[in-house]
Amino acid sequence: MPTHDRPDSEPGWRVHDLLSNDPDGRYIDHTSLSQTDRAEIDDIMASLVALREAEAELSAASQRYMRLNATDMKAIHYLIAADHQGEIATAATLRAHLGLSSGATTKLLDRLESAGHLQRKPHPDDRRAVTFTVTNSTREIAMETIGRQQFGRVRAAASLTSPERIAVRRFLDEMARALAPRESEWTKKNTRNS
Question: Same domain, yes or no, for 96 and 132?
Fold first, then answer.
């Protein structure tokens, strides 16, 4: 929440503020940042926290509503999107999208099919293969509830000007690169003491 929107009952600092985490400038040299710069950066960090919390809340609510786990929800979303794109969804394409093993994908598909969320159909070009589509009832429920809520992201992006969208995208891409732990030495160790 931006600084000016902070309730009076909260302290004058937030847990994600720059000076709350790096008061001595050990990780970020903030000596060249003005107080306004720091406040704006702190507000961006607070907005990111609010976004993550809203996403987590929506994810949990959608899983409860659909009575599915997070991987099931990702599978349903992928199958709906693939259908919208005119793509044929198979166990292999779903496995690649979700990063699951062959066995885990089979269990997931069997579970979703037995719950009435998807159906198998013969592959139009390969008699040995089957395709998977979301049932009409699951599609309708997903699109009219969770999908409608998720389109708020698109509305927010559409409300920006083109230069603003470019700046936001550049910021989010840079943030994703900065946070990705792939190249960090500490992530290559199994435990802190090894």
Answer: yes
**pLDDT of 90:** 95
Enclosing H/E stretch for 46? helix 35-66
150-156 own/partner pairs: CB under 8 Å, 24+ apart: 150/58
Paired strand residues for 119: 133
Q: Whole-angstrom Cα distance, residue 64 to residue 69?
A: 8
* Residue range of the domain that includes 45: 1-6+13-23+33-66
CA distance linking residue 41 with residue 35, whole number of Å: 10
Question: Could you tell me the two tokens for 129?
Answer: 């293969």
Regarding pTM above 0.85, the answer is no
pLDDT digit string (tens) for 135-175?
A: 999 999 988 888 888 888 899 999 999 999 999 999 999 99
User: What is the rounded CA–CA span in Å between residue 82 and residue 132?
Assistant: 10
Please check whether residue 186 lies inside any domain of the structure: no
Residue 91 within any structural domain of the chain = yes
Query: Which domain CATH number covers 137?
Result: 1.10.10.10
What is the tens place of the pLDDT at every residue in 121-138? 999 998 888 999 999 999
State the total domains in the chain. 2
Amino acid at 174: E
